[in-house]
Design brief:
heterodimer; A: 244 residues; Arc Repressor Mutant, subunit A; four-stranded antiparallel beta sheet; 9 helices; 4 strands; B: Arc Repressor Mutant, subunit A; three-stranded antiparallel beta sheet
């Protein structure tokens, strides 16, 4: 996703640069000397080129507009008027100044939005309180067999990635052993996360045996598996009928 | 009992901003739990404008009282929120608010133009900013701050964009009328050149005013059909 290219961040567009140059001159937008501005603008573009910075095409369009304005100023006044009649268009100077004024207004509006944005970060609403009559076990839904299988599948996959180096050891895990193990652990902790059940597993067969033990205990209603939120971590806890 | 203290109690215990409709639902449901309390029945069908007036007065009272919290209306929903100067203690208490990173300068500028000028096309945005807005628009659309508003009735029927309720929430604004200096910036729109940016005067295409749908031709009032 990350695409590295040098971009001149300071001035996003040519209008930005023009406003900066006008500000540096400390004059009103309406009173700016566009001929001098054109010179400064082109000088700036030259510098950017020298530094080998990527230049947006819009800068070149603006440079051309400025050159156009500058060239008109060079013509004698009577011919200027003629040219204007031919074009039958607006004076490009006024067009540009109008655009600058409009852009400046929105730039100021953006600054005000920025103030609001920062302010809003510091405004806190009331946070939900814990209701007094909420039951001990909040609403949660029982994890289905599919949830459990996909969860154990994820554990097995993680295990597969981890176990590049393998040792060969005796396959000593039986479902009965694991049932006893789970009963003991849950007797101490009351509840634990699904992933914690397999945290110390040394082999795939151990994971499978533990999982089958879990299913058996759920069937015997000794433990229950629930999900507190959709796609959340499955939690295993002992039921009221648990006989440690 | 009066409307105002009831609203205060309801909003005090509410855990999310309440819209006028939700508040009316609360009033509609209250008589069931009233046990002979007469006001609950009296206020069962309270009107929206009465609610708005009472809420606004409540907000004013809190503002004048100089409390550390105020009653805010954001995107048409009401909620008590703290004043920004108490942020350090609240951050220590509940942690930083989960908010996406701040918007960049170009994104804010583009968003400002959309907010004041909506519905607006990309061409119009680019005309004001003088640069392409594609990347920025992508960000604004992804963050749910702007959305497609329809199509402009000009050649090519380009897509137009407007702000979402999420925009108001993000900046803590009650409505678009609440935007700073809204009047002035909307007035700039009147200075727009007659010809639309999308139609070049040199083209053989019909000018935009002739392209409007026949149903939209305006007849002077009172003219016989």
């Amino acid at each position: 996703m990350a695409e590295y290219k040098v971009k001149f961040e300071v001035f996003e567009g040519p209008l930005d640069l023009l406003l900066y140059l006008i500000k540096k001159e400390e004059v009103d937008i309406y009173q700016v000397n566009l001929t001098r501005l054109a010179g400064q603008f082109i000088e700036y573009i030259e510098t950017m080129r020298m530094l080998d910075l990527e230049l947006a095409g819009e800068f070149l369009v603006m440079a051309a507009t400025l050159m156009h304005i500058k060239s008109r100023e060079l013509l004698p006044v009577d011919q200027q008027a003629q040219a204007q009649d031919e074009d039958a268009g607006e004076d490009p100077r006024w067009e540009l100044i109008r655009q600058l004024v409009e852009y400046k207004k929105f730039k100021d509006a953006a600054a005000q939005l920025q103030v609001l944005e920062a302010r809003q970060e510091n405004v806190f609403p009331r946070t939900p309180a814990r209701l007094e009559f909420a039951s001990e076990t909040p609403s949660r839904c029982e994890a289905s067999i599919f949830d459990l299988v996909s969860a154990v599948n994820a554990v097995l996959q993680r295990f597969g990635q981890r176990a590049e180096q393998r040792e060969i050891f005796e396959d000593k895990w039986t479902v009965a052993d694991r049932i006893q193990h789970l009963m003991r652990v849950l007797g101490e902790q009351a509840r634990m996360k699904f992933s914690e059940l397999f945290a110390g597993a040394a082999s795939r067969s151990e994971i499978v045996a533990t999982f089958l033990a879990l299913l058996e205990l759920i069937r015997l209603k000794q433990v229950a598996a629930t999900q507190e939120e959709p796609f959340g971590e499955i939690v295993v806890y002992k039921t009221e009928t648990f006989h440690g | 009992m009066e409307l105002k203290p009831i609203l205060e109690a309801v909003l005090f215990s509410a855990q999310k901003p309440l819209s006028l409709k939700e508040i009316r639902d609360v009033f509609a449901g209250a008589p069931e739990h009233a046990e002979g309390e007469e006001s609950a029945r009296r206020l069962k069908r309270v009107k929206e404008d009465e609610l708005t007036a009472a809420l606004e007065e409540l907000a004013r009272e809190h503002e004048q009282g100089g409390h550390s919290f105020r009653l805010a209306c954001v995107a048409g929903s009401w909620q008590f929120v703290t004043q920004p100067e108490y942020a350090p203690w609240l951050k220590a208490l509940v942690g930083h608010k989960a908010r996406p990173p701040r918007l960049s300068q170009p994104a804010l500028e583009t968003l400002a133009i959309i907010a004041y000028r909506q519905p607006v096309t990309r061409a119009e945005l680019e005309q004001v900013r003088g640069v392409a807005v594609d990347g920025v628009m992508q960000t604004l659309l992804e963050r749910g701050l702007v959305e497609q508003a329809g199509r402009a009735e000009v050649v090519g029927r380009p897509m137009t964009y407007g702000t979402t309720p999420g925009f108001l929430e993000y900046f803590g604004l009650r409505s678009l009328e609440d935007l700073p200096a809204a009047d002035e910036l909307r007035r700039v729109a009147a200075q727009k050149p007659e010809g639309l940016a999308t139609v070049d005067p040199g083209l053989a295409t019909a000018p935009p005013e002739q392209l409007t749908l026949p149903t939209e031709t305006t007849k002077p009032e009172g003219e016989p059909q």
